[in-house]
Amino acid sequence: MQDELTMLEGGWMRLKVPLPFSLRFVNAYLIPDPTGGYTLIDPGLHTTAAEEAWERTIDRLGITYDSVRQIILTHMHPDHYGMAGWFQLKSGAPVLMSRASHAYARRLWGQDRAFDAELTALYDQHGMPLELLAQIAPHLESFVALVSPQAEITYIAEGDRLTFGGGEWTAIATEGHGEGHLCFYRPDTRLMVCGDQVLPDITPNVSVVPGGKGGELRRFLASLERLESYDVAAAFPGHRDPFTDFAGRIRELKEHHARRLDMLAGWLDEPVAAYDICVRMFGERIGGNIHNLRFALSETLAHLDHLVDEGRAERVRRGEGFMYQRK
């Protein structure tokens, strides 16, 4: 994909930072400040192609890396977090993210990380075949280079007020997509930076992962309810294009999950493993792609666990693992 710099209202710039998987790009926002310099939101995954895209952008704009005065991360997923350390070394700018998101980044890619083994064990309990389980750890380890060097973090939290783009923004804690995910709202212009919590055209991934709080889909839907109460004129997502009907998109996402829950509930007449449900639900979209399969199985688990929490299904022990059936 050819990198693309789009000029938005208010002098904002959106760079489509290339990704080496199905999403194709992540949105990085470069926002000018009236007093000089720029704020950067979610710089992308650290790849050679991404470095080249940023080098071309900096050159095209006629600015220097040290023009970036702060780097804000909505969450720790590698396509958002990965270049933060590289950009910090280039610019000297502080990197801001939530404490919970940074803690989970350390769990994923820290020196004492155990996530590879934890996720493999989780998927083993839910029916993933051995030949696929063997691919999980190498796949996850491949991301370490894509988030290195890792940044020094300054913590921000729910309710904190940040200044960028000539205005004051409030941090909003949103749950279900990634631990410690933050959105940012500016009330005077009714703008929302929504990261991956609300996306146009595609649905944000909601996953069961080791070390999560549990109730991922419940927490995600509760965050959507909260966000729906904001008066939003324009929203700036992590993927796809900025959009205006924020409340309408939230309603669509809620309806999507309600339909999916009903569909899954109808497949539980007999005990079935989450992996088999996942294959039935996602089909060819996950064939031969361990990256997509990982997200698909974790999202399947989030929906099945939600059915259990609602009393519509039960999780039953089968040997060393689990199956789900209608209650």
From TrEMBL:
<protein>
    <submittedName>
        <fullName>Hydrolase</fullName>
    </submittedName>
</protein>
<feature type="domain" description="Metallo-beta-lactamase">
    <location>
        <begin position="25"/>
        <end position="239"/>
    </location>
</feature>
<dbReference type="GO" id="GO:0016787">
    <property type="term" value="F:hydrolase activity"/>
</dbReference>
<dbReference type="Pfam" id="PF00753">
    <property type="entry name" value="Lactamase_B"/>
</dbReference>
<comment type="function">
    <text>Counteracts the endogenous Pycsar antiviral defense system. Phosphodiesterase that enables metal-dependent hydrolysis of host cyclic nucleotide Pycsar defense signals such as cCMP and cUMP.</text>
</comment>
<dbReference type="InterPro" id="IPR036388">
    <property type="entry name" value="WH-like_DNA-bd_sf"/>
</dbReference>
<dbReference type="InterPro" id="IPR001279">
    <property type="entry name" value="Metallo-B-lactamas"/>
</dbReference>
<dbReference type="InterPro" id="IPR036866">
    <property type="entry name" value="RibonucZ/Hydroxyglut_hydro"/>
</dbReference>
<dbReference type="Pfam" id="PF21221">
    <property type="entry name" value="B_lactamase-like_C"/>
</dbReference>
<dbReference type="InterPro" id="IPR050662">
    <property type="entry name" value="Sec-metab_biosynth-thioest"/>
</dbReference>
<dbReference type="InterPro" id="IPR048933">
    <property type="entry name" value="B_lactamase-like_C"/>
</dbReference>
<keyword id="KW-0378">Hydrolase</keyword>
